[in-house]
Amino acid sequence: MEIKITPGNTVALTPPEIRFLERARGRTSGVAVHISSDYQLDYETVMEKMLSSGYLKFGSVTDNVGYLDMQTLRKLAKDRGLKAGGKKVDIAQRVLDNYSVEELEALDLPEYIILTDVGQQVLEENSALILYYGHFGSREWTDPERIVKAQKAHPDVRSEDILICLLKEEIEKADSVGKKRYLTAFLCRMFELKGDTVLVQEAEAEIQRLDAEWEKEHQKEKERLAAFWGLSVEEYDARRERAMAEFDSEWEKELDRQARERAGATGLPTAERKK
User: Fold this and answer.
1) Phi, psi of 32 (to 5 degrees)
2) Closest among 84, 65, 85 to 75, alpha carbons compared
3) Helix (H) or strand (E) holding 259
4) Which end of the chain is more exposed for a tag (fewer CB within 10 A), N or C?
5) Beta pairing partners, 58
6) How many CB atoms are located within 10 Å of the residue 75 CB?
7) Is 22 left (phi over 0), alpha (psi -120 to 50) or beta?
8) Selection from 255, 223, 253, 249 nearest residue 236 by Cα
9) Cβ-based neighbours of 46, under 8 Å, separated by 6 or more
10) Structural element, H or E, at residue 61
């Protein structure tokens, strides 16, 4: 896939583009295509932006050697009668010392995407966002743009503390016990990252308090629904359990029906197809 590079000044990146920058480094183009789709980014567009701004570059043949997997490196070393054991960096250096550039080019090795010094600076300036994506993934509890702005406004504050501050704000705004509990669990994780055992214990105690509060609310809701249907709580629970069991049974039947249809389409017995 050809990417056009138009030299220019560096440009600001969106949170998904910063996450792409962090994940695409040291990867091949094929892998980077899938990474871009994870964040609803067009690969050619985002790569052109990264390359023209100097955040990423495609490695030279000698650069690429350092990113090869161990199996490939060991084979290259053995082909030259070199020691194939040891650390990856040492094997890579042996290969570079004993192969000419022309010989490496003739091997048609994979081409890797490499993070530049400018790209590294972007990641360092957005370490809180990288930490957020790394620990919470798709479980977004705030707008990632808020994290970018917070770190830009407070560049000297630790990444963990930025996320802790934003989490506390979200907990204050939470409109349900369940959401507060969900966010407090994330807050506890941040305290663990900081290694603050006192705050971890306080957060765990708050989670237990919220769990107890949720149980009370849940019990009240069951009592309300039971009264609505003219049942006792015990009768309501029993009917609910029967309904769930019937639903599970119907769902199992539907899964079995679908398996039989797929098996029929392929000519395989159902049991074999399920494997």
Assistant:
1) -65, -30
2) 84
3) helix 233-266
4) C
5) 113
6) 13
7) alpha
8) 223
9) 17, 20, 36
10) helix 61-65
CB 72 within 8 A of CB 126: no
10 within 8 A of 54, measured Cβ to Cβ: yes
Contact (CB, 8 A) for 106 and 99? no
User: Is the overall model pTM greater than 0.90, yes or no?
Assistant: no
User: pLDDT tens digits, residue range 221-244?
Assistant: 989 998 999 999 899 889 989 988
Strand pairing of 56-58 and 113-115?
A: antiparallel
Q: Provide the 8-state DSSP code for 55.
A: S
As a residue count, the chain comes to 275
Tell me, what DSSP letter sits at residue 57? E
Residue whose pair of structure tokens reads 């993070």 in the numeric block: 115
Specify the DSSP class assigned to residue 112: B
How many C-beta neighbours within 10 Å does residue 221 have?
10
Q: Are 53 and 10 in contact (CB under 8 A)?
A: yes
